[in-house]
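Continuing the batch. This is chain 6 of the set; chains 1 through 5 are on the previous pages. Same settings as before, nothing changed between runs. Recording input and output for traceability.
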Amino acid sequence: MNIALFGKSYAEEQIPFLQLLIDELAAHKASIRFYEPYMEKFSGLLKLPSNIGYFTSHEELANNTDMLFSIGGDGTLLDTIPFVRGSGIPILGINLGRMGFLSSVSKEEIREAVENVFKSDYVLEKRALLTLTEPTGIFGDLNFALNDLTIYRNNTTSLIVVHVFVDDLFLNSYWGDGLIVSTPTGSTAYSLAAGGPIISPGSQNFIIVPIASHNLTVRPIVIQDSSEIKIRIEGREEKYLMTMDSRHSAISKQDELIIRRCGFNVNLVQMKNRDFYSTVRDKLLWGRDYRN
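Output for chain 6:
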């Protein structure tokens, strides 16, 4: 099996777990390829098998890769999406970060997870993405997001007004700090922190969530993801900030944004002893009463 390993940050306490992962993969005679900028951070600190390889681009990864291991937190896993894109390569998240809604395998479960992968004892969850179809030049061919697209005011204390249309029908004008358009996967990320609902991954929905709305009667709304969302921005500034997952760019208030469901899904690997609802209960401490 050809396994690619992707990560971003280096921390000394991660080395034993990364070494364990490499040893387990080598014991199963896996062919291992590292994301090269990540491997450089650990140069000389790991014992590596002789058949180690490297990748730096989507094209190199898509060529003969059976599974990608994301090593870090949810932010690291989001950064794997531009490398995987529509290739269908399954992504297994190993959580060396904090919350870990997407990176569901803990560092204590590495050995068991590797064993399950080689026994094909796991399930694949297809996760929908959103795409920014207009304007075309902001993110180029990386115009998709697994979690969300957000619009913020940019270095100013002035409110911005975000006018939203769904399938060419006027929805609302949101006065506040900005707006989030989220997928079901992103419902447990920024959308949740801004007061949005939790949506199960298979739901075919978008969530529109205002950020610090100046109108207290405005609430998040869930729409079907077959809809087209158009956004126009009004405010005192000429430029505003937009993000798609971890990518960000300045946009002009003259730009009209068009958002649709992306034409491909990504496959997240889930161990059979885990599911979305158990992850939510665990991460959000549902059902735990510390008064007792």
